[in-house]
Amino acid sequence: MSRRIPTLWAALAILGLLACSPPKPEVDQLEPDLQAVLDKVKSDTAFNDADVALVVRGAKVAEILNSINSIPAANRQVAVHVVRENRKLKNEADYYLELYDLPENRASGEIKQVAANWTGDGKLAIDATLAVSGTAKIHGHYNPVKVGGRVGVNMNASTTLRGRLAFVADPKELLAVTFELDPAVISYHLGSSIKDQKDFCWSFNYPCGGTWREPIRSCEARDCKRLWQYEIPIGIRDDVKISGNMVRLPVKVGLPREFTVDTKVGETVFKKRLAIDITPNGFTSDSRGLFMKAKVSVKPSTSGG
């Protein structure tokens, strides 16, 4: 009489193999060109200590960034509002200029054109044209007679921003990106004037000679005196400096950290939650593009399930 291993023990043995030492899959029936790439990778010593690898052409990274130019202009704008004025715009002996209604002093910057290119040292060089437009509400005060007026002035300016995206290794993720912005200057000019004049006029009536029909009649005397007349020129030129800075951002890999093995043996269903641990162990950025590799371990999950 032959003996057979019970179905339950067979299922447990399968789950144990999956949880402790998952076998490496065999890839069969690939297209010839893909099979050639796989064979080359298998023979490359750079992959001996890696389970997964990712290669991205630098030209493709530049192409993705250049696609910003196809985004609607409304989605490429940055709005700026004035929240505080630290000093007067101008403070002369006879007059001074300052902003009023601060929340209504606003500007918007729009990225007009982006040009990204992959460089020979494995970085992404970026040039972008930034156009700035805005409105300034200015109050001018004439000191000698303590009067003033208000005017709105439009502003338009543009500059070129240059920077680089550098790709570096990260201890927890496949890579990190640092963005370095070169110093830039936005020069603007506000040109207008605030004018005002005030006259004091008076009049009075007095009796005066008339005609034989109306020998005495009422006459009016009028006169005016100029109290003030001024023109406050608004000629403001300034440079807004954009200082260079560097920002580092880790790039996360969109892979699941856990998955569930759902196995059915006979009429019995077994489920096992397994955790994936990805440990980066290689990174290169050169004239061709990006190369990343990592070790992957699979073990029973501690989160339950």
What would the keywords be for this entry?
single chain; about 300 residues; mainly beta; four-stranded antiparallel beta sheet; 14 strands; about 10% helix
Structural class: mainly beta
> How many structural domains in the coordinates?
1
Give the strand content: over 45%
Number of helices: 3
As a percent range, the share of helical residues equals 10-25%
Categorize the overall geometry. Answer: elongated
Order of helices and strands, N to C?
HHEHEEEEEEEEEEEEE
Low-confidence stretches: 1-27
Q: What is the typical, i.e. mean, pLDDT?
A: 77
Main sheet specs: 8 strands, antiparallel
Please report the total strand number as a whole number: 14
Radius of gyration: 39 Å
Termini separation comes to 40 Å
SSE arrangement:
Elements lengths: L6 H14 L11 H12 L8 E6 H9 L10 E5 L8 E2 L3 E5 L6 E13 L4 E20 L4 E22 L6 E7 L2 E26 L6 E27 L3 E6 L6 E8 L2 E18 L3 E12 L5
Antiparallel strand pairs: 1-14, 2-5, 3-4, 4-6, 5-6, 6-7, 7-8, 8-11, 9-10, 12-13, 13-14
